[in-house]
Amino acid sequence: MSGVRVGVLALQGDVKEHLRMLADSGAAPSTVRRPSELAAVDALIVPGGESTTIDKLSRAFDLRDPIRDRIADGMPAFGTCAGMIMLADRIEGGIEGQQTFGGLDVTVRRNAFGRQVDSFETDLRVEGLDAPMHTVFIRAPWVERCGPDVEVLASVDRGEAGMHPVVVRQGVLLAASFHPEVGHDDRLHRMFVDLVRTAR
């Protein structure tokens, strides 16, 4: 089967790294900065960065409503770090007026693991992967609450703060708290590309 067309929202974040992972996963990747480019893809990755900035830039580039509409119409999407926040229906710790693309029936807490100095790496077991994945958390969110249709694929134990989901899936939507584009493990991207192929 020919590669599915997966766009990477190219307003902020590790765009080149996601494009490389997608190409390695057998997709046909492209950048998305305009509504016409969004209309040309089968699916979208929303990368990390700063969720409030992504929110503002998506409106400035006239992308916010088209992305919301495509997700509501069933377009597969994969959000990483700030991208997880952008796919969430609800945010805790957001700034006044902050909006998301929505679609995932979750409540996400911004900067849940702390500031930049609290960034960390860990080997994480993700349901559907055959071995632990080395993961990098940078000012990462976590999921506070999930709706009934949300599958939790991985969680992190934060001691007194308890276990919190960091990889979730709901239908054709996938989200991870960490940066799977960092390094050379493309298994989560391959999982998403397979999901897109199945949806198509």
TrEMBL record:
<dbReference type="InterPro" id="IPR021196">
    <property type="entry name" value="PdxT/SNO_CS"/>
</dbReference>
<dbReference type="GO" id="GO:0004359">
    <property type="term" value="F:glutaminase activity"/>
</dbReference>
<feature type="active site" description="Charge relay system">
    <location>
        <position position="181"/>
    </location>
</feature>
<comment type="similarity">
    <text>Belongs to the glutaminase PdxT/SNO family.</text>
</comment>
<comment type="subunit">
    <text>In the presence of PdxS, forms a dodecamer of heterodimers. Only shows activity in the heterodimer.</text>
</comment>
<dbReference type="GO" id="GO:0036381">
    <property type="term" value="F:pyridoxal 5'-phosphate synthase (glutamine hydrolysing) activity"/>
</dbReference>
<keyword id="KW-0663">Pyridoxal phosphate</keyword>
<feature type="binding site">
    <location>
        <begin position="49"/>
        <end position="51"/>
    </location>
    <ligand>
        <name>L-glutamine</name>
    </ligand>
</feature>
<dbReference type="InterPro" id="IPR002161">
    <property type="entry name" value="PdxT/SNO"/>
</dbReference>
<keyword id="KW-0378">Hydrolase</keyword>
<dbReference type="Pfam" id="PF01174">
    <property type="entry name" value="SNO"/>
</dbReference>
<feature type="active site" description="Nucleophile">
    <location>
        <position position="81"/>
    </location>
</feature>
<dbReference type="GO" id="GO:0008614">
    <property type="term" value="P:pyridoxine metabolic process"/>
</dbReference>
<comment type="pathway">
    <text>Cofactor biosynthesis; pyridoxal 5'-phosphate biosynthesis.</text>
</comment>
<feature type="binding site">
    <location>
        <position position="110"/>
    </location>
    <ligand>
        <name>L-glutamine</name>
    </ligand>
</feature>
<feature type="binding site">
    <location>
        <begin position="138"/>
        <end position="139"/>
    </location>
    <ligand>
        <name>L-glutamine</name>
    </ligand>
</feature>
<keyword id="KW-0315">Glutamine amidotransferase</keyword>
<dbReference type="GO" id="GO:0006543">
    <property type="term" value="P:L-glutamine catabolic process"/>
</dbReference>
<comment type="function">
    <text>Catalyzes the hydrolysis of glutamine to glutamate and ammonia as part of the biosynthesis of pyridoxal 5'-phosphate. The resulting ammonia molecule is channeled to the active site of PdxS.</text>
</comment>
<keyword id="KW-0456">Lyase</keyword>
<dbReference type="GO" id="GO:0005829">
    <property type="term" value="C:cytosol"/>
</dbReference>
<dbReference type="InterPro" id="IPR029062">
    <property type="entry name" value="Class_I_gatase-like"/>
</dbReference>
<dbReference type="GO" id="GO:0042823">
    <property type="term" value="P:pyridoxal phosphate biosynthetic process"/>
</dbReference>
<feature type="active site" description="Charge relay system">
    <location>
        <position position="179"/>
    </location>
</feature>
<dbReference type="GO" id="GO:1903600">
    <property type="term" value="C:glutaminase complex"/>
</dbReference>
<protein>
    <recommendedName>
        <fullName>Pyridoxal 5'-phosphate synthase subunit PdxT</fullName>
        <ecNumber>4.3.3.6</ecNumber>
        <ecNumber>3.5.1.2</ecNumber>
    </recommendedName>
</protein>
